[in-house]
């Protein structure tokens, strides 16, 4: 007879692409995960995974079994959570991905009191600036800043997120304060490379207006973009949740070129077609209240 532990191990391995990563997510040893896989394959009388020294792939039988196996695991998790929630308890595991800088500066401090109030929630928070696939990477939800690029996601807005054009006072004294988009094109820029392009985007009356500055520095980390701007290397367009404190302290100055950057949001998104648990909804509601509207990190004035 099939055991749910074996089905869960198979789904985790299929999603993670390796036994070792699946074991990490399940918080089990590799040997236990391997044993559960072997026992399930023996019970089914079928080989579900091709194993080599370099990679692990699903067999034809494995692909056919995965869709229903994933549904079974999800249903069992939701059923167990529903029973606990009927008793007024938020419980069970959650796996959420979030950006590094926002996670460190704002998401973590907002989550800590919530988790302290709900000790039966088992949250795994993965901080990574790369664009993860919420469904195939096995996340219950992702927290992100910006536009929503994946149409397979259902998004909940947690807070508006203004992006501000900033530079250090020293840089502006040496290079002049740009007052228009034309002025901005002659300036040195610090660009967040995970967005893929070295440009500044603004809202115009007929759509997006794109200005390309001179590349001074490209970095894939928001903290370092802010620090480079404070060091006087150039102008940066960064979220208020990163640069707000530096503006309040006088380390950075907001630049007004007559146009606002494109509107963005802090949002939580979960895969389409997956019924979000009560604990995920509770976390989203808590974050929305904690961040505020306008959010507390917006600079004074």
From TrEMBL:
Molecular function terms from GO? DNA-binding transcription factor activity; sequence-specific DNA binding
Domain named HTH lysR-type is located at 2-59
Biological processes, Gene Ontology terms: DNA-templated transcription
What keywords does the record list, in alphabetical order? DNA-binding, Transcription, Transcription regulation
Q: Check the record and name the InterPro entries matching this protein.
A: LysR-type_TF_proteobact-type (IPR058163), LysR_HTH_N (IPR000847), LysR_subst-bd (IPR005119), WH-like_DNA-bd_sf (IPR036388), WH_DNA-bd_sf (IPR036390)
What does the function comment of this entry state?
Answer: Transcriptional regulator of the ttuABCDE tartrate utilization operon.
Per the similarity annotation, which family is this?
Belongs to the LysR transcriptional regulatory family.
Provide the protein name. HTH-type transcriptional regulator TtuA
- Organism of provenance: Rhizobium jaguaris
